[in-house]
Amino acid sequence: MIKARVTVTLKNGVLDPQGKAIEGALSTLGFEGVGHVRQGKVFDIELESSDRKQAGADLKAMCEKLLANTVIEDYQVEIG
Amino acid sequence: MKSAVILLPGLNRDRDMIAALTRISGKPPVTVWQTDTEIPDVDLIVIPGGFSYGDYLRCGAIAARMPVLGAVREKAAEGVRVLGVCNGFQILVEAGLLPGALMRNASLHFVCREVRLEVVNASTAFTRGYTQGQIIRSPVAHHDGNYFADAETLKRIEDNNQVVFRYAEGTNPNGSVNDIAGIINEAGNVLGMMPHPENLIEPAHGGTDGRALFESALDLAGVAA
Predict the structure, then answer these.
(1) Closest chain A residue to B176 measured between Cα atoms?
(2) Catalytic one of B86, B94, B142, B215
(3) How many pairs of residues across A and B have Cβ atoms under 8 Å apart?
(4) B15, B84, B139, B174: which could form a disulfide with B88 (CB 3.0–4.6 Å)?
(5) ipTM of the complex model
(6) In order of start, what are the domains of chain B with their CATH numbers?
(7) Whole-model pTM?
């Protein structure tokens, strides 16, 4: 079995109001020196296959078709 | 003119939409369930508002991958008119039938209020009943209506007059780029908008500004062809 982690984040240049709110909250809590905060999503996905190459291709297709909205988001796939 | 309303779990404005279409056209729309792969012959397909699939993953993302959206895509390619309101708009952009994306409101708050809309393009099949530049009232109720498109896409849709509705000055409730409230596809038969015209169609609603949109889309009398 393959365990993979997909991270989806907003593209650079896309305004992230949630990240901004988190940034403000960190500063309210007294954390100093916090620069920009960008938030995103993490998906942990288990695949039955043991073919890492195929898994990489499948995960990329999953990101393109569903997990990320490539109009506004970038994705990164890590295969464990 | 016949209409159809698409039903998906989590939508909650379907009854309002069915009531509006019934009252305006005199005929109840057919309803089409998410797993249906065929839509009957109709002149207008409407995807109403709500929270399909609980807004999981992204608003409209799961709904946009259901079988019925394949059927909507086919009908749209044939030239059938398609209207997506609120979550319906989010579903149409997620399905790639309209450009851009709808993001969390800039204020991070859910907004439920009345806004004013400028009819920026009154020559579409959906807006012929309005006059160019007319300011109309419409309710909005959403958490993710902040329209975004990259600079190139934005320029293209602006140059093509695909922006149909803008929030009138000072009423942008969500941070949408260029105050965009509704856009149409290049072919001119798929319209998506965040505001709810179906909730302002009779005096009991406090106004009838939404009515002309349905009368236009349904080719009803009184609207120039």
Answers:
(1) A15
(2) B86
(3) 36
(4) B84
(5) 0.87
(6) 3-217 (3.40.50.880)
(7) 0.94
